[in-house]
Amino acid sequence: MAPEQATTAYAQLGGEDTLRRLVHRFYALMDTLPEAWELRQMHPEDLSGSEEKLFMYLSGWLGGPPLYEQANGHPRLRARHLPFTITSAERDQWLMCMNLALDEVLPDHPLRPRLWGAIEGLADHMRNKADPPGARE
């Protein structure tokens, strides 16, 4: 591995194997936790395509191979999510599943706090609908 590759978050987290475990655990949690029901309803019955897309996206986002871009062009992440209603509730469900997956796959990793801050910002950026009156933000 070239020295500059070892400095990417992708490499520091463990590369493809670790990222695949994280994404797989994220979708397993989303698929089974009652608290993530609204989020789960936004996805197809078979989660394998969604899982692969998230893996590919996160690979490039973390500085690894830009798999998503190679296969699909620029992610245009927010635009691709516009057909779905994403309020604070859906964002929070997504973050809950990701946090639990991170707890299991990367519990004490030194990069986790910085990674979590970036993930929170990314998830918040996906919100595209106002919260219903009386909902917390």
Strand content: under 5%
**CATH topology title:** Globin-like
* Order of H and E elements: HHHHHHHHH
Distance between the termini: 43 Å
- The rough form would be described as globular
> What Rg, in angstroms, do the CA atoms define?
15 Å
The low-confidence runs, each spanning 5 or more residues with pLDDT under 50, are: none
Mean pLDDT rating: 93
CATH superfamily: Globins
Structural class: mainly alpha
State the helical fraction: 55-70%
Describe this structure in words.
Pfam families: Bac_globin (PF01152). Keywords: Heme, Iron, Metal-binding, Transport. Belongs to the truncated hemoglobin family. Group II subfamily. This is Globin. This protein has 137 residues and is mostly helical. It has a single domain, classed as Globins (Globin-like). It is built from nine helices and no strands. Helix 3 crosses helix 8 and helix 8 packs antiparallel against helix 9. The chain is globular and about 45 Å long. The model has no long low-confidence stretch (mean pLDDT 93).
